[in-house]
């Protein structure tokens, strides 16, 4: 088949080709602009995601530290609650018959009251008395004659009070009654 191309037809084809080329450049420019916007938007979203991830990690570290502190505080409260219950029970029981307390006396004056003689002896060590001091029973001298003296007191329910556990034996004076 033979086709005859005229100048008019050739001019129309060239115009169509130029129009198509112009439309191609226009479409390509719009596509590049859209691609650039999408890349910038992707970069912004990625940046926000990375910042959010860093913040989440930081908050996670803070939260784990707070949870550890909370756990320690709860354990401490539980220990204190147990100790408070024990002390309340002890307080509600009150003194029992024969229960002994030790009064530490300094030059005859009461200094402190302790649950045991050992606790009183340990306290004298904090006041400069030797910790390895050998304690001996007191003789008939008055309490004021001793720098430190421990006296035991036992609870007597009949009198509702504490009384000396060891009453000193009076000395026999020659011929006196």
What does this structure look like?
The chain is of the alpha+beta class and 177 residues long. The chain has a 4-stranded antiparallel β-sheet with strand order 2-1-3-4, covered by helices on one side. The radius of gyration is 49 Å and the shape is rod-shaped.
Short description:
The chain has 177 residues and is α+β, with helices and mostly antiparallel strands. The chain contains two helices and four strands, in the order αββαββ. A four-stranded antiparallel beta sheet has the order 2-1-3-4, covered by helices on one side.
- Describe the sheet with the most strands: 4 strands, antiparallel
Uncertain segments are: none
Secondary-structure class: alpha+beta
Distance between the termini: 167 Å
Strand fraction band?
5-15%
Mean pLDDT: 82
- The percent of residues in helical segments reads 40-55%
Give the strand order of the largest sheet, numbering strands 1, 2, ... along the chain.
2-1-3-4
Helix count, DSSP H or I runs of 4 or more residues? 2
Radius of gyration: 49 Å
| Bulk shape | rod-shaped
DSSP E strands, number: 4
- Output the helix-strand order: HEEHEE
What order do the helices and strands come in, and which of them pair?
Blueprint: H1 7-93, E1 100-106, E2 109-114, H2 117-126, E3 148-156, E4 161-164
Antiparallel strand pairs: 1-2, 1-3, 3-4
């Amino acid at each position: 088949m033979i086709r005859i191309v005229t100048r008019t037809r050739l001019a129309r084809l060239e115009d169509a080709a130029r129009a198509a080329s112009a439309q191609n450049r226009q479409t390509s420019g719009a596509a590049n602009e859209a691609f650039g916007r999408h890349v910038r938007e992707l970069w912004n979203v990625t940046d926000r995601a990375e910042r959010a991830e860093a913040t989440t990690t930081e908050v996670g570290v803070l939260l784990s530290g707070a949870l550890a502190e909370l756990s320690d505080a709860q354990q401490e409260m539980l220990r204190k609650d147990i100790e408070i219950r024990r002390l309340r029970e002890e307080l509600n029981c009150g003194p029992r018959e024969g229960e002994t307390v030790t009064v530490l006396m300094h030059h005859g004056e009461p200094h402190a009251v302790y649950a045991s003689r050992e606790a009183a002896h340990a306290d004298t060590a904090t006041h400069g008395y030797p910790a390895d001091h050998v304690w001996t029973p007191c003789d008939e001298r008055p309490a004021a004659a001793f720098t430190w003296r421990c006296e035991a007191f036992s609870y007597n329910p009949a009198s509702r009070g504490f009384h000396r556990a060891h009453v000193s034996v009076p000395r026999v004076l020659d011929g006196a009654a």
